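Structure request: Derlin, Arion vulgaris.
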Amino acid sequence: MASNDIGDWYRSIPQVTKYWFTGSIIVPLIGRLGILSPLWFILDFSSFIYKFQIWRPITAALYYPLSGPKGFHFLMNLYFLYSYSTRLESDTFAGAPANYAFLLLFNWLCLVIIGFAADLALLMDPLVLSVLYIWCQLNKDQIVSFWFGTRFKAMYLPWILFAFNLIIGSGGMLELFGIVVGHLYFFLMFKYPQDFGGMQLLSVPNFLHRLFPRRQGGVAGFGQAPPSRRRPDDGGNGGGIWERHNWGRGNQLGD
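Returned structure:
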């Protein structure tokens, strides 16, 4: 019975999130069991360029050490990945997995560039934070619960995680990179076209639509900027859709 419950739960995970979640379990287990050395998974510019080890940018986003104190942090990453990626794909990007795959692809490419420039070995932390940040911006007024019963608006959650890791973690830079990349996507895909009347600078490539065809039951826009709800007398100043629109469903961290 328990195995059936686990199978039903796994099958219920949205398509793109399922691939990401599964890879984030398999790759660390391969390293932990010694099937391959973890050194094959980390981001390394010289190996990528001069040895043509082209898998490294992908495995660097999926691998995380499981031993020692890193194990708990890995479980927290899995929780945030599953929770917020599922919410984004099931709500804002419902019925359009290609658009959500593009979100992950865009964030991942940005983080690979940052990783090479800043000499980062692993990208799981910032990639998960970038997705969490986007959900929090689309649900910024939703009240979430954190440790010890603290409650605050979702818009503050990425910064609280950044401060938490700044104080007792690894310095917070990985979280900060995730926030920057998440904001870049959010600004280019949603805020710039909507609040500033700019052109749509990001578009989903056709090959993603072929890999992840649209499904019935999605929401209007499929992750694109929705029609403006600014009133004519707003004049483009203040009170835009970002203040009045309820972006998706909100859930508490512990849900």
